[in-house]
């Protein structure tokens, strides 16, 4: 996150692991809620951490949330591989997040689409690949030439606005775009920008108006709150050994193992890489 800390420092103890699971739950809840999902944050946590929900819900809403179980491990493994945001990574995230929801998950649109209430027309299908490449190339050019973290954050936010205007998929563009935005933050040692559902109208207005200054102010507010939230997790009294798995123990064994081992290796590799650059 901000303040010079490396991602490799994040998973040294159980509180840090719990923080990242908290990120996963909030990322899933707020992003799906922005798109109309009615499940509460507690219900979202039950699906992600326990694999079930105690009340009847639609199959679609269940999978909209459940698919996020794969996102954090994918983020961490991609960081380990030093994967940049490109067509392949974008399609990979879309394939995971839209699994069991549409038939063409992981594939760019082939039919023109519209954004309800938007004052622009999304990119035509045949132009999507080159538009995505241009977007990614521009993002990394700006990141490589950034003088500080604010420059990096601004580049990531502008790339998000561009992605939503391209609207490369038939469905799931908002969720995929917000995942990519968070990945860009983690890749650059910035706090994850999780758009709160309560600020949906502000967020939508920013996208419609291409308001990068407003987006920066909004993101800085979120960043400040996120750093504070993480610090609260880390300041909690360490758990006793018998209770060390707290939240992790509620995950399926395979998922917990994948999340913990993959995350630690990925983020330590990131830290080592940053250390070598100094």
Automatic annotation (TrEMBL):
Pfam annotation, one family: Fic
Source organism, top-level taxon: Bacteria
Key word Heme present: no
Gene Ontology molecular-function annotations: ATP binding
Domain Fido: 85-224
Record's keyword terms, sorted: ATP-binding, Nucleotide-binding
Residues reported in the UniProt entry to bind ATP: 171-178
Record-annotated active site: 167
Site (Important for autoinhibition of adenylyltransferase activity): 35
Protein name, as recorded: Fic family protein
Organism the protein comes from: Campylobacter fetus
